[in-house]
Write a structure and sequence with these properties.
six-stranded antiparallel sheet
Length: 128
């Protein structure tokens, strides 16, 4: 009788611990952040804008950026100190995407992590 009760208690403790660890893994802040970024990339940020500043002055702006990705080394287990993305470059920094800028296509760009940049969703197409 006591042996059976001890086995049941150990089984319950094991299931509670396993459930806690599974919950902690599936719903950790890092996992929720990853899920949120995936949803934002899939369903939103179609018209993301990246503005890059140097010494308080706007030096570059990119339109229609879907996401900024942190670079990782191929054979390394750490992140590299920059983020990259693709977007149309606003050459004259007027906040609109003109035909000649759009005809150049999307450009690859890198932004150092420790620099001044802003990434936001414009909510409308910059061509309008």
């Amino acid at each position: 009788m006591f042996r059976r009760l001890a086995v049941i208690i150990l089984l319950i403790l094991f299931l509670v611990l396993a459930g806690f660890l599974a919950f902690r893994y599936l719903f950790s802040p890092e996992r929720m952040n990853l899920i949120g970024r995936t949803v934002g990339t899939t369903f939103g940020f179609d018209h993301g804008v990246v503005e890059y500043y140097s010494m308080g002055h706007l030096v570059a702006r990119f339109f229609d950026v879907e996401k900024l990705t942190t670079a990782k080394g191929t054979y390394e287990n750490s992140s590299r100190p920059y983020r990259f993305g693709y977007g149309y470059r606003d050459l004259n920094l007027d906040g609109r995407l003109e035909g000649d800028e759009a005809s150049l296509g999307k450009a690859y760009f890198e932004v150092p992590i420790y620099s001044d940049y802003i990434f936001y969703d414009r909510k409308r197409d910059p061509r309008q």
